[in-house]
Design a protein that fits this description.
The complex is a heterodimer.
Chain A: H1 2-14, H2 21-30, H3 34-47, H4 57-68, H5 72-85, H6 90-103, H7 108-120, H8 125-137, H9 141-152, H10 159-175, H11 179-195, H12 201-213, H13 217-230, H14 235-247, H15 251-263, H16 269-286, H17 289-301
Helix pairs in contact in A: 1-4, 2-3, 3-4, 4-5, 5-6, 6-7, 7-8, 8-9, 8-10, 9-10, 10-11, 10-12, 11-12, 12-13, 13-14, 14-15, 14-16, 15-16, 16-17
Chain B: H1 4-10, E1 31-33, E2 62-65, E3 74-77, E4 96-100, E5 106-108, H2 110-113, E6 121-127, E7 136-141, E8 146-150, E9 156-158, H3 160-163, E10 168-169, E11 173-174, E12 177-183, E13 192-197, E14 209-211, E15 214-216, E16 226-227, E17 229-233, E18 239-241, H4 243-246, E19 252-253, E20 255-261, E21 270-275, E22 281-285, E23 291-293, H5 295-298, E24 314-317, E25 326-329, E26 339-342, E27 347-349, H6 356-360, E28 365-371, E29 380-385, H7 392-396, E30 405-409, E31 414-416, E32 431-437, E33 446-451, E34 457-461, E35 468-475, E36 487-492, E37 498-501, E38 516-521, E39 525-532, E40 538-545, E41 548-553
Parallel strand pairs in B: 35-41
Antiparallel strand pairs in B: 1-34, 2-3, 3-4, 4-5, 6-7, 7-8, 8-9, 10-11, 12-13, 13-17, 14-15, 16-19, 17-18, 20-21, 21-22, 22-23, 24-25, 25-26, 26-27, 28-29, 29-30, 30-31, 32-33, 33-34, 35-38, 36-37, 36-39, 39-40
Classes of the chains: A mainly alpha, B mainly beta.
C-alpha cells in the first residue's frame, strides 16, 4: 500500500524530532519494527492524553504502523483521534483521506478530507495528486485536471512524479472532451517515460489506449512498437500488435502476437481473455477448427466475474 | 516524492473518455418532436420505489406497426405495473395502442383493441404469425407474456395459453422476459418466436444494493442468467418449445436486445443477442433446426479489450453497402457502443476506428437502430440514451437524463450530429426503447422513443427532403406473409448498391416498421431490386421509380 509508505518516509525525514518516546518510535520504524513502535506510540499518546500531543506526528506514525501490520480500521481510528486533537492538520487529513480512498475509491469523506488538506497546504503536491486521483474516480474531472495542473507547477517534483501527474491530467482532460490538451499531457508523460530508467510500459500503454480510443491507430502502432523495443515482454503491447494484425487481416502474425501476449508480462484478466478470443477468431479464419474450439473452450471456462 | 505506485495502481481503473467530433458536413439531420401536439397522452410508469426493484429501470417496449392495414404506422407502448402486485392495478399502467390519424395526431384505441395487457410488461414484438395479413403482438414481461392475435377488425384476442407461448420454462417457471423477436428460422413460411430472458428475479428474494448507503439497482452479476426460448410455429395457431432441441436452451445469458440477419449469406437467418455483463451470443443457423453459438470465434462476443459490456440494444444491418450485415450494440457509460464490421465469415471490432467509441463513451444507451435518416444511401446510427440509475447524480455525479445520440454514416466512419439535429434530439430523458418507421409516409424514417416516468418522443424526420427514397413492403406467399428474413439488394441509378432485409426486431425490446427503407440520394430511380425470399425464390424488379412505397408480392 503506497499510501502509507510515502507519508512514513516524509514523516521520518522531515518532521521535527521531539525528544523521548517519539524519537524512539521513529528509530523502531526505521528498523522495521512496527510492533514495537505501536507500543511506544500508544503509550506516548495515552500518557499525554490529558495534555494532548502538541504535534500530529505520533498519530500519523501510529496509523502507518497499524496499516502496515494490516490493521486498517485501527489506522483509520487513530487518524480520526488525531484529527479530533488537531482539526486543522493537513497531514492527518491527507493521510486519512488517502486511506479512506484506497479502502473505497468512491468514499465522499475521502474527497472532503483531501480537499481540505489541499486548501490548508496548497504547496503540497502529494495532497493535490491524491485529491486528483479521488476526483478522477468520482467523475469530478474538472477538479482532477485543475489539481494536477496546480501540482505540476509546484517546485521540487522529480520525473516520476511529473510522469504520473501528466498521465492522470491527460486522462482527466480527455474525460472533459479536451482531446488536444489531453494528448499534450499524455505526450509529455510518454516523453518522460522514454527518459526514465526503468521505462514503465504501463504508463506508455495508457497513451496507446488514448490513441486507440481516438481512432489514431497509426500513431498508436508507433507507440506500441516503441514499447516493445524497450519492454519486449510487455503483454498488453503484444496484444495491441495482435489487434493491428487482425485488423489488417494478417492472420498468422495476429496469432503470433496473441501468443506473445499470453507469454508476456503485465496482462490483466481481460487482456488474457482478449488474446484467447483473438486466437479463436484467427484460427477460425484459417480453418483450424480444432484450435479455434480449444481457444473458445478456454474463454468459456474462464468467464471470471462475468458469469451467466 | 513517491507517486509512481499510487497512480500506476489507479490508472487502469479509469476509462479514457473521448470527445465528440464536430460534424464536417454542411447538411444536418432535422427532427421535430410532435408528441406534445399529437394527442398521445402515454406516460411510461415503472412504479419507481426507494427499494430499487431491478425491474423498474428496464421497461423499454415500443412498436411501430400498422394494426388496421390503413397504410399508416400506429404506435404501441409497453407499460409497467404496480409493485409489489406486479399487476396493472389502474389504467395508468395499461399498455397503450394509438391509431395514426394521418394528420400528425393519434387516437388512443387501447380499450377497443383490447390490448391493455397484464402484469409488469417489458417489451413487444410484432409479426403476422398466422399469415392472415394482420400484424399480431407478442408482449414480454416480468410475470406475464402475452400473444395478442389481431382479429382484423381493430380488436385483438389473447391467445397465449392456447398457442403455448406463455414463457414458462420447465426448470425455472415464468421468467423475466425482456425482448422477443419473430423470424422464420426454418424457412417453412411460418414465423417462429424467440423470447429473450434476462435474469432470475424473485421479488421475495431480491438483493439489496447501495453505494455509500444510497440505494441503487444491483449489478446483473447479483442474479443468475437464464436460457432463451425458441417457439416453433406449428401452423395451426400453436407453437412448440424447441429451445432444447435447437441448442439455444443450452446457453445461459442475460439477454437484452435481439436482432436477426443472415450474416454469412447461407439463406438462413442467424441470431444476435446482446447480453448484460455477459458475452454476446451469435447463434449461427445450421439449417437443420439447430444453432451453434459462434460469437467468440467470429469476433462479436466481447469488445476489443476482451471485456463483456452491459449489452443493451442491438441492430444487425449492412452499413457499408458491401452486402454483409454489421452488428451495432449499445452499452453503459464507459463501455462504448461496440460496432462489429462484418467481413463475410467473421467480424472486426471497429468501434474506435469508426468514431463510435469517442461519441459513446460518456453515454448509456438502450434501444438503437441502423437506418438511413438523411436518405443519402448510407445507413446512420441512432441510440436512445439514459442512465440506468434515476439517482445517478446523487451517487456518482452523472446525469440520469441524457439526450439521444445520432451518428451520421460518412462512408466508413460515423460523426456525431446529435446536437445539430434539432432541439428535439437534445431533450434529456431517461430514454429506454426506440422504434423506427415512416409515420407520415414521406420517405423519411421517423423515430419514437419511450422514457421512464415521462412522455414519449415522436420525432418526425424533416431532414434533406431533396434526397430520393424507396420503401418496399413485401408480402410473402410461400414465404411468411410479412416477408421477414427476405434479403434485398438494390442498384440505384446513381451510387453504390445497397442491401437490407426484412425484420421488425430492432434495438431493445421494441419492434420497428417491417417495411424496408432505402435512401437513394440523387438517384431518381432504381435499376434493379433483387429479393431473395426465405422460400429460396429469387425475384428481380427492373427500373423502379423512386419516392414510392412499393408493395411487392412473392411470385
Amino acid at each position: 500500500m503506497i499510501v502509507c509508505t510515502l507519508p512514513l518516509l516524509v514523516i521520518l525525514s522531515q518532521a521535527p524530532s521531539p525528544p523521548g518516546a517519539l524519537s524512539t518510535a521513529r528509530e523502531q520504524i526505521r528498523q522495521g519494527n512496527c510492533a514495537a513502535a505501536i507500543d511506544t506510540l500508544t503509550l506516548l499518546l495515552h500518557s499525554s492524553a490529558k495534555s494532548r500531543p502538541e504535534v500530529a506526528v505520533p498519530y500519523q506514525l501510529l496509523a502507518v504502523c497499524y496499516e502496515r501490520s494490516g490493521q486498517l480500521d485501527r489506522a483509520i481510528d487513530t487518524l480520526r483521534d488525531g484529527l479530533r486533537d488537531h482539526p486543522a492538520s493537513p497531514a492527518l487529513e491527507r493521510t486519512l483521506g488517502e486511506l479512506l480512498f484506497h479502502q473505497d475509491p468512491s468514499n465522499p469523506e475521502a474527497g472532503q478530507l483531501l480537499a481540505s488538506a489541499v486548501k490548508t497546504a496548497p504547496q503540497d503536491p502529494e495532497a493535490r495528486h491524491y485529491y486528483a486521483q479521488w476526483a478522477a474516480l468520482n467523475n469530478r474531472d474538472e477538479i482532477c485536471a485543475s489539481q494536477e495542473q496546480a501540482a505540476i507547477r509546484l517546485p521540487g517534483l522529480n520525473n516520476l512524479a511529473l510522469l504520473q501527474m501528466y498521465a492522470l491530467q491527460g486522462i482527466c482532460l480527455n474525460h472533459l472532451d479536451k482531446p488536444a490538451a489531453a494528448k499534450s499531457a499524455l505526450e509529455k508523460a510518454f516523453a518522460i517515460d522514454l527518459r526514465q530508467k526503468p521505462f514503465d510500459p504501463a504508463i506508455a500503454y495508457q497513451y496507446v489506449q488514448f490513441l486507440m480510443g481516438r481512432g489514431q491507430n497509426e500513431e498508436a502502432r508507433e507507440v506500441v512498437a516503441e514499447i516493445l523495443r524497450r519492454s519486449p515482454q510487455f503483454g498488453p503491447a503484444h496484444l495491441e500488435a495482435a489487434k493491428s494484425f487482425d485488423h489488417d487481416r494478417q492472420t498468422e502474425k495476429a496469432i503470433q502476437e496473441a501468443k506473445a501476449a499470453l507469454l508476456g508480462e503485465g496482462d490483466d484478466d481481460a487482456n488474457i481473455r482478449a488474446a484467447h478470443v483473438l486466437l479463436a477468431k484467427n484460427y477460425f479464419i484459417l480453418g483450424k477448427t480444432a484450435e479455434a474450439e480449444a481457444e473458445q473452450q478456454w474463454v468459456e471456462s474462464h468467464a471470471g466475474a462475468s458469469k451467466p | 516524492m513517491c507517486l509512481v505506485g499510487s497512480v500506476a495502481a489507479m490508472l487502469p481503473l479509469v476509462e479514457i473518455l473521448q470527445p465528440v467530433p464536430a460534424p464536417q458536413s454542411g447538411v444536418h439531420f432535422s427532427f421535430r418532436d410532435i408528441a406534445p401536439t399529437s394527442g398521445v397522452q402515454f406516460v411510461l410508469r415503472n412504479s419507481a420505489s426507494p427499494r430499487k426493484h431491478q425491474i423498474e429501470t428496464m421497461i423499454s417496449g415500443v412498436a411501430l406497426f400498422d394494426y388496421n392495414n390503413d397504410g399508416l404506422l400506429d404506435i404501441f407502448f409497453v407499460n409497467g405495473a404496480a409493485i409489489p402486485s406486479l399487476e396493472k392495478e389502474d389504467p395508468s399502467f395499461y399498455n397503450r395502442l394509438y391509431r395514426n390519424n394521418g394528420d400528425g395526431t393519434f387516437t388512443d384505441v387501447t380499450a377497443q383493441a383490447g390490448v391493455a395487457g397484464v402484469g409488469y410488461s417489458m417489451g413487444v414484438a410484432v409479426g403476422d404469425y398466422d399469415n392472415d395479413g394482420f400484424a399480431d403482438l407478442y408482449v414480454t414481461g416480468v410475470n406475464h407474456n402475452q400473444l395478442l392475435h389481431n382479429n382484423g377488425n381493430g380488436t385483438f384476442t389473447d391467445v397465449t395459453a392456447q398457442a403455448g407461448v406463455s414463457g414458462v420454462q420447465p426448470k425455472y417457471g415464468k421468467t423475466w422476459a425482456m425482448s422477443a423477436g419473430w423470424f422464420d428460422y426454418n424457412n417453412d413460411g411460418k414465423l417462429d418466436l424467440l423470447v429473450i430472458n434476462y435474469v432470475n428475479w424473485d421479488p421475495r428474494n431480491e438483493p439489496v444494493c447501495s453505494v455509500n448507503q444510497i440505494p441503487t439497482y444491483c449489478s446483473p452479476d447479483k442474479y443468475q442468467g437464464l436460457p432463451n426460448m425458441l417457439y416453433r410455429n406449428d401452423g395451426d395457431g400453436t407453437f412448440t418449445n424447441v429451445s432444447e432441441q435447437s441448442g439455444l436452451g443450452a446457453h445461459l445469458g442475460k439477454g437484452m436486445g435481439v436482432a436477426f440477419a443472415d450474416y454469412d449469406g447461407d439463406g438462413y437467418p442467424d441470431i444476435f443477442i446482446a447480453n448484460d455483463t455477459f458475452r454476446n451470443f451469435l447463434f449461427h443457423n445450421n439449417r437443420n433446426g439447430t444453432f451453434s453459438e459462434v460469437g467468440i470465434v467470429v469476433g462479436v462476443a466481447y469488445n476489443q479489450d476482451g471485456k463483456s459490456i452491459a449489452g443493451m440494444g442491438a441492430d444487425f444491418r449492412d452499413t457499408g453497402n458491401d452486402g454483409h450485415p454489421d452488428v451495432f450494440v449499445t452499452g453503459m457509460i464507459h463501455d462504448t457502443f461496440p460496432f462489429y464490421r462484418n467481413r463475410g465469415r467473421f467480424f472486426e471490432d471497429v468501434t474506435s476506428q469508426s468514431g463510435i467509441a469517442r461519441a459513446s463513451q460518456r453515454l448509456t444507451g438502450w434501444g438503437n437502430g441502423i437506418f438511413d435518416f438523411d436518405n443519402d444511401g448510407y445507413k446512420d446510427l441512432f441510440v436512445a440514451c439514459g442512465s440506468i440509475l434515476d439517482n445517478s447524480w446523487e451517487i456518482d455525479r452523472l446525469p440520469a437524463k441524457l439526450p439521444n445520440l445520432l451518428l451520421r454514416n460518412t462512408g466508413g466512419t460515423f460523426q456525431d450530429e446529435s446536437v445539430l439535429s434539432g432541439v428535439a434530439l437534445r431533450r434529456a430523458a431517461m430514454h429506454r426503447g426506440v422504434a423506427f418507421g415512416d409515420l407520415n409516409n414521406d420517405g423519411r424514417i421517423d423515430i419514437v422513443t419511450v422514457s421512464l416516468n415521462d412522455r414519449p418522443e415522436i420525432l418526425l424526420n424533416e431532414s434533406t427532403p431533396s434526397n430520393h427514397w424507396l420503401i418496399l413492403q413485401l408480402e410473402g406467399g410461400k414465404s411468411n406473409r410479412d416477408g421477414i428474413g427476405a434479403r434485398i439488394k438494390i442498384q440505384p441509378s446513381i451510387g453504390p448498391a445497397q442491401f437490407n432485409h426484412v425484420t421488425s426486431s430492432v434495438g431493445l425490446a421494441s419492434s420497428s416498421d417491417r417495411r424496408v427503407h432505402f435512401g437513394l440520394g440523387r438517384a431518381n430511380s432504381v435499376a434493379t431490386v433483387e429479393i431473395d425470399w426465405p422460400s429460396g425464390t429469387h425475384q428481380v424488379l427492373h427500373s423502379v421509380a423512386s419516392n414510392q412505397i412499393l408493395h411487392v408480392k412473392e411470385p
